[in-house]
Structures are given as structure tokens and as C-alpha cells.
Write a structure and sequence with these properties.
single chain; alpha+beta; 60s Ribosomal Protein L30, Chain: A; 2 domains; 3-stranded antiparallel beta sheet; 13 strands
Length: 292
């Protein structure tokens, strides 16, 4: 008697559990309640050696879908990224999206476009607040599509199919990188001062240094101050350091991260010309930029 009383509940429970088991453990086992949640790497957006933001997770997608999911924490920070791109016109946001082995490259392309649209909305909002217009939003993004052979999947959600990073708008070729690393740029100075004389060619070189440091953030710019022999060794060492520090501050204004620069002084010890002539002294009053 009691058995028949509980039979409907037993049948209902059996049907429900069977449906769950088939759907989540057999057909779509990525939504299993018994699977251990995989380790999800924290999302970090960097520009060279600077960390711009962190979030508990990156942009995610449901399997076989192109609509991005942004955590509330990450969504709030998009405006900050948009502002950063606007204030650093030599930088872009590189968006890499991937597709799992059971998905298509076309789906990854749609994912990339949808992420770009999310950031474009924020960029437009920032520009509208600043009353600016005629913005080419394409100049803020570069995209790449790859296959992810080892996707991290949990409850039908893909966690490692998106990569966002800040890159230089001008990407240097291997030949350009080699030239920069084997070249030495000289900033010239007026006599007994830390006042620089900067040429147009130097400005172009600084743009390339900025691009290189973004591409290879482990590199450093060594800023080495030099003088002529008009004053004593101690005074010239001090003046050489003053010139190096002045050059470092100028590079910072030009967009070079000061944490990627190191300052030194050689004083009068390493002339590149004779100090017996006016022209030789002019050439020796310099700061050299060396990348390594």
C-alpha cells in the first residue's frame, strides 16, 4: 500500500535523474555536476611590463556560440581600456579568438567581431563624451583566428578561446628589430647644460623604440650620459648623469615606459672625437641610447 503511494514520486525522480544523466553525463558531459571545475587562469591585460587590469576570468563563450560573456568585473573595466587606447594612439588592442576541434574558424571570426563590437561601443561612448567624431575604430584593433587544440571546457562554457593584449600600432619586422638593437642613437647637448638638441630622425627612432619595447617587453633602453673635457672628472660625471636623467624624462613624455629604461653616466671617459676642437667637443656632449 505504502509502495504504491510513493510510486509516482519514484517514477518522477527516476525520469528526472535519467534525463539529467543522459543530457549532462553522456551527450553533453561538459555540464556534469560531478566533474571537478578546471583551473581557470586569471585574466591579465598588459602593455609591455605594465599591468593594466586583472579579472577573475577572460571573455568566455558557450560551445558553438559566438556571443561573448563578460563578467561584471571585466565589463566595468572596458571603459578604462577604451580610454587607454584613446590616450595612447600608438597602441592597439589585439584580439585573438580560437575555435575548439568540434567548431569552425568562421565561428571564431564571429566571436572576434563581437568582442570588437563590445569595445567599439565603449570607444564611441568615450569619444562622444569628449565631443570628438570621425573616428576610424578599425585603427584600434587587430585580430587573429587560431584553433585551440586543448580547450578548457566546463558546463558547456569555453574558458581559453580568447586572448586580449595591447600591441604597438606599428609592428616591426625582424630586420628592423635587428637594426635597432645594433644601432646607437645620440642625443646632442649644448655646452655645460642638459638642454637637448633633437632631430626629426630621432623622433622617428623613438617611435620605433616604443614599438619594439611593446613587442619585446624584456628589452631595456640604456641611457648613457657623456661630456667633453672642459670641467673636472667629478663635475663631468655629475653632468653626464644629469643629461641621462633629462633624456629619460623626455623619453617618458614620448611614451617610453621609464621602468624599461636605465640611466648611467660615463662623464668624460669615453669621447668619440677629439676634445681639442670645437666640433669634437660638440660630438662628445651627448646621451647614447642603447637597446639590449
Amino acid at each position: 500500500m505504502n509502495f504504491y503511494r510513493f510510486l509516482p514520486w519514484i517514477i518522477f525522480t527516476w525520469i528526472g535523474f535519467s534525463t539529467y544523466w543522459y543530457a549532462c553525463e553522456i551527450k553533453y558531459n561538459n555540464c556534469s555536476c560531478f566533474r571537478k571545475r578546471p583551473s581557470i587562469p586569471i585574466f591579465v591585460l598588459t602593455d609591455g611590463i605594465d599591468t593594466l587590469l586583472t579579472a577573475q576570468q577572460n571573455v568566455t563563450f558557450r560551445q558553438n556560440e559566438a556571443t561573448p560573456y563578460l563578467t561584471p568585473n571585466l565589463e566595468k573595466k572596458i571603459t578604462g581600456i577604451a580610454n587607454y587606447l584613446i590616450n595612447h594612439k600608438n597602441k592597439r588592442l589585439a584580439i585573438t579568438t580560437a575555435y575548439a576541434p568540434n567548431e569552425t574558424a568562421d565561428l571564431a571570426n564571429k566571436r572576434c567581431q563581437n568582442i570588437k563590437n563590445e569595445f567599439s561601443k565603449q570607444l564611441n561612448n568615450v569619444f562622444l563624451k569628449g565631443k570628438q567624431s570621425n573616428i576610424n575604430l578599425d585603427s584600434f584593433f587587430v585580430q587573429k583566428i587560431i584553433q585551440q587544440p586543448n580547450p578548457i571546457v566546463f558546463q558547456d562554457t569555453l574558458f581559453n578561446v580568447t586572448e586580449l593584449k595591447i600591441v604597438a600600432k606599428t609592428m616591426l619586422s625582424p630586420e628592423q628589430i635587428s637594426t635597432l638593437q645594433n644601432d646607437t642613437v645620440r642625443l646632442m647637448f649644448d655646452k655645460k647644460t642638459a638642454d637637448m638638441v633633437v632631430s626629426e630622425k630621432t623622433y622617428q627612432y623613438i617611435d620605433q623604440i616604443d614599438a619594439l619595447l611593446t613587442q619585446q617587453p624584456k628589452l631595456r633602453v640604456y641611457i648613457i650620459g657623456h661630456t667633453d673635457e672642459n670641467d673636472g672628472a667629478e663635475e663631468n660625471y655629475r653632468l653626464g648623469m644629469e643629461r641621462a636623467i633629462m633624456a629619460q624624462k623626455w623619453l617618458e613624455k614620448m611614451g617610453i615606459n621609464p621602468r624599461q629604461t636605465l640611466v648611467f653616466s660615463e662623464g668624460e671617459t669615453k669621447p668619440i672625437a677629439s676634445n681639442k676642437t670645437v666640433e669634437g667637443q660638440r660630438l662628445n656632449r651627448r646621451v647614447e641610447l642603447v637597446i639590449k
